[in-house]
Design goal:
By secondary structure, the protein is of the alpha/beta class. Helix content is 35%, strand content 24%.
Length: 147
Amino acid sequence: MSANFGGSNNQEVDINITPIIDCFTVLITFLLASASFLSIGFFEVSTPGNGVDAAQIEPDTELVVKVKSNQIAEFREKGKKNGILRFDLSKPESVKSLETELDTLKSNDYKLTQILVSADDEVGFQALSQVMGHLNRTNLPVVVGEF
C-alpha cells in the first residue's frame, strides 16, 4: 500500500499492516478460546416465598440425643412435644422404655425429619453404639456432632 502526498517530491510511504493483522489474529484466537470456558450457571433456590409451605420445611418436633459419661442417654424434644427424657443404658427396663419412646415418636405425626446425636468425651464406644443402634431402627437420618 502506498500513498502519494501532493508535491514535487513524489515520495512513496509504505504502511506495513502485517504486525497489526498478526496481533488481531492472536487476539481473536484468545477471545474465542477464553469464551469457550465461560459458562453461566443458573440454580433454583427454594424459599418459603416460592409457594412452599413453611410447615413442610420445619419439622414439628426436633429430637436431640446426648449420651453422657454416666451411661445416661438424654432425649431433648422441642416443638409440638417438649420435654427431657433420661434413660439409663445400664438398666434393661430403661432401655426398653427408650425403645418404646422411639416407637412413639416414629408412629405419631410429629414430622420428625432427623435425630441429632452428641456425646461426652468420656463416653465409651459400647454405650454410643447401643444408642445409635436403637436410633437407626427409626429409619430417620441420624446426625452426629456437637450441637
